[in-house]
Write a structure and sequence with these properties.
Structural class: alpha/beta
Radius of gyration: 21 Å
CATH architecture of the largest domain: 3-Layer(aba) Sandwich
Shape: globular
Largest sheet: 7 strands, parallel
Strand content: 15-25%
CATH superfamily of the largest domain: Glycogen Phosphorylase B
Length: about 400
């Protein structure tokens, strides 16, 4: 193909998270032989938009406000028509959708126009921890139909591929390609000492205080209630002074604030809610431990970024966590039902500086190559070409 390969990339919404980073780096760095148009919706209420990430890399996207996470017949129909118009105009060789709503609308439009290659990436999935049984079964049926009509399906971890192919039977294993996410991780390794000093000074963190952070949407699926139960348990068991940072915003904010206030009443000034922080690389460098307590995940960005910044992680054993966090080497991965184990492992890290250090070294080395955007674009470029050949 002498001319450029035209790609239209469609994501659910421009909010802070894996899909935005993935789409940004694939749009920017895919190579001169590709010409990519990026389309996306708007964030949910309480979410921080991620348009500053696109600006940072010089990308102009087409924002369609009608692409919204919630089901709405009128908005979905408007969004479908707008996407279809754009595809008719561009006539792409490849339409690549990311996450569920974009996957539904974008692939439906691409199928109707007989686009040569249609690809979908599952970043997480909505097959558990989101909806009731009837809705979940309906979504599975829709996904199976769309997978049949797609040229290729991408999972972001081996575990997710197994879930899609074996457990939920969305597509046969042969149709699912594993391409892990990729990020610009260099900034998490630069100016560590200076950034650490600045961040700790900003939050009045003393030298002997261990800082623990959880980063992500304040949404039910992230289960901050579990996290706060862990913190309460930890405070009862350790003599080491700790400070806790809840980074993010969302629908559960008021409930989390109330519970954090109860803990602060007993242990003054322990928990701080920061809302969203844009320069997360510098912030991470001021922390000591990162936690994740989700009920469901694809590949959690905060865990990859934490390791790049040299931080040990304690996480619930969900989604693709085990694919990105080596249990006992870069952190601890714990079954959700074992909250006492979670508390004990977190306490171990809080109280053992040398263990934090060894986890830090392993984690950083582990993620820098596996999850760089250089690897992501190389993998995606060769996958696209193989699908076009077929």
């Amino acid at each position: 193909m002498d001319r450029k390969i035209k790609v239209v990339r469609i994501i659910n919404r421009f909010n802070i998270g894996g899909p935005t980073f993935n789409a940004t780096f694939l749009t920017k760095f895919l190579g001169d032989e590709f010409e990519t148009t990026l389309i996306g919706g708007v964030p949910d209420e309480g979410e921080k938009d991620s348009l500053h990430i696109l600006e940072e890399y010089g990308i102009e996207a087409i924002v369609i406000p009608d692409i919204q996470r919630n089901l709405s017949l009128s908005n979905d129909l408007k969004a479908y028509k707008k996407i279809k118009r754009i595809l008719q105009e561009i006539q792409p060789d490849i339409v690549h959708t990311h996450a569920s709503k974009a996957g539904f609308l974008g692939r439906a439009a691409a199928i109707s126009l007989k686009i040569p290659v249609i690809v979908h990436t599952f970043h997480g999935h909505v097959f558990h921890s989101y909806f009731g049984t009837i809705k979940t079964q309906l979504f599975k049926q829709i996904e199976r139909y769309l997978a049949k009509r797609s040229t290729g399906i991408i999972a972001i971890s081996d575990l997710q591929k197994n879930e899609l192919a074996e457990i939920h039977k969305i597509a046969p294993k042969t149709k699912v390609q594993v391409i892990p996410l990729g990020f610009d991780l260099e900034k998490f390794t630069h100016d560590k000492e200076r950034n650490r000093k600045e961040v700790r000074a900003r939050y009045n963190l003393k030298e002997n205080e261990i800082s623990i952070a959880i980063i992500g949407r304040l949404a039910p699926v992230k289960d901050h209630d579990y996290f706060l139960n862990v913190i309460r348990g930890l405070l009862k068991k350790t003599q080491t002074p700790i400070r806790v940072f809840i980074v993010g915003d969302g629908s559960e904010k008021t409930i989390i604030q109330q519970k954090a206030a109860l803990i602060n009443a007993e242990y003054p000034d322990t928990i701080l809610m920061t809302s969203w922080i844009l320069d997360i690389a510098s912030f991470d460098q001021g922390m000591d431990i990162i936690c994740l307590t989700s009920k469901n995940e694809g590949t959690p960005v905060s865990i990859i970024e934490a390791q790049a910044a040299g931080l040990p992680v304690v996480s619930t054993d969900v989604g693709g966590v085990r694919d990105i966090l080596e249990d006992g080497k870069a952190g601890f991965v714990i079954k959700r039902e074992n909250i006492e184990t979670y508390i004990d492992k977190l306490r171990l890290l809080v109280e053992d500086k040398s263990l934090r250090k060894s986890f830090s070294i392993f984690g950083e080395q582990n993620v820098m190559d596996k999850y760089s955007y250089h690897r992501l674009v190389k993998d995606m470029s060769s996958y696209y070409k193989s699908l076009l050949k077929e």
